Amino acid sequence: MKKLFSFLAVALLALVLVACGGGSSENGESGNNGEGNGENESASGEAEHTIRAGIGLNKDHPQYKGLLKFKEIVEEETDGAIKVETYHSGQLGDDRSMTEALQLGNQEVTIPSTAPIANFVPEFSVFDIPFLFPNEDVADEVLQGDVAQGLLDKLEEEDLVGLAYWENGFRNLTNSERAVETIDDFDGLKIRTMENDLHLEAFKALGANPTPMAFTELFTAMQQGTVDGQENPYATIYLENFYEVQDYVSNTNHVYSPFVFLMSKQFYDGLNDEQKQIVSDAAKEAGQHQIELNREANAKYLEDLQEEGMEYTEITPENRQEMVDAVQPVIEDFKEQIGPETVDGIMQAVEDAQSE
Ligand code: KDG
Q: Is there a contact between 159 and 102 (Cβ–Cβ < 8 Å)?
């Protein structure tokens, strides 16, 4: 009798493992996606390792196209020894829950903005300092520098490995109530922010009524009027169809958000040295590809948003300066929490990059 129970238990376990590990293309597309193999089909042979990679944005966003590039490189370079399953649109959870899943070894890759990462490593909030980066060139220079690279090293203390910076981009305000041209226009607007205290306090200093919320809940919150507006790069605003529920967009450019390509430390430590080098190089190479696509998208979609009926308001330098002045006390308040060394280091790196 005992043998029968053992057999049944093993059979049941095998069935469960097949069901969970099938990696069926939950993305809605199977087969060749033009970027190599089917999104959840490995290149060839039996995979030694499987990477479950989940993001919050949808399959049309450069973030997902970058992830498909990562998959293509890793499966080719390892000849299928490492298989990459790709999931978009929060299919595996929101930024915070997916990052926690990496810490527990229940997922292998996610690519959140730095803002939610600050809940795990507070120093990452340095990138949420409003108006920190004046342009993309300075952002590139600083993110390749020692201070930004040093922040990636801190992730290991949280059972995470930061393999590369990717790009979300300059964030701009949208809302359904009014055109925002001056700081006074923020007054009382219910603005969704990422789950990050600095963002929350900065929007309070601007006069808004901010609410922290996971990205996966945002569209519904705007649709139902729970919030009046949000702030994201144009690529996200357009590709996530926010124009369907938002009427006004302003080029506030108030924060440049990097993404971080995060890998579970448990998983990373289980790879051999060659495989570690492959996934690390692939995250960087796919990141360059993603940043190129992201720049093209963010440059293109403002016009498309206006074609979809959104009213665009240009923020003048004078009006932006009023916003910069209003948030300075918040930056001082958060300097201690982020770490004075990190804040001063990034500020110096920005100054150095601008003087080149
Ligand atoms: O998966 C990444 C998204 O969650 C990213 O867009 C985060 O900018 C973000 C937001 O507004 O939550």
A: yes
- Give phi and psi for 46, each to the nearest 5: -80, 130
DSSP letter assigned to residue 78: T
**In sequence order, what E strands does 42-201 have?**
49-54, 82-87, 109-110, 160-170, 172-175, 192-193
Type of residue at 229 = G
At 13-40, the pLDDT tens digits run: 545 444 443 333 334 333 334 343 446 6
Can you point out the beta strands (E) in 140-202? 160-170, 172-175, 192-193
Closest CA to 191 of 206, 182, 181: 206
Inter-CA distances, 106 with 101, 130, 139, 275, Å = 5, 34, 32, 20
Which ligand 1 atom is the nearest neighbour of the CA of 55? 1
Q: How many Å apart are CA 310 and CA 222, to the nearest integer?
A: 15
* Helices and strands (H, E) in the chain, number of each type: 13, 11
Return the DSSP state at 259. Answer: E
Domains and CATH numbers, the chain: 31-355 (3.40.190.170)
Closest among 129, 79, 102, 96 to 275, alpha carbons compared: 79
User: What is the rounded CA–CA span in Å between residue 214 and residue 58?
Assistant: 15
At 261-312, the pLDDT tens digits run: 999 999 999 999 999 999 999 999 999 999 999 999 999 999 999 999 999 9
Cβ atoms of residues 80 and 47 within 8 Å: yes
State the closest ligand 1 atom to the C-alpha of 192, by its place in the atom list counted from 1: 11
Q: What is the pTM of this model?
A: 0.89
- For the chain, report the end-to-end CA distance as a whole number of angstroms: 78
Testing ligand 1's pocket by substitution, the residue of 232, 238, 256 carrying the most ligand atoms inside 8 A of its CB is 232
- Find, among 284, 338, 295, the residue nearest to 165 by Cα: 284
| Strand 49-54 to 109-110 pairing | parallel
Q: What are phi and psi of 255, to 5 degrees?
A: -150, 140
Are 289 and 66 in contact, with CB atoms under 8 Å apart?
yes
How many other C-beta atoms can be found within 10 angstroms of the C-beta atom of residue 178?
16
100-121 per-position pLDDT tens digit: 999 999 999 999 999 999 999 9
Cα of 260 to ligand 1 centre, how many Å? 11
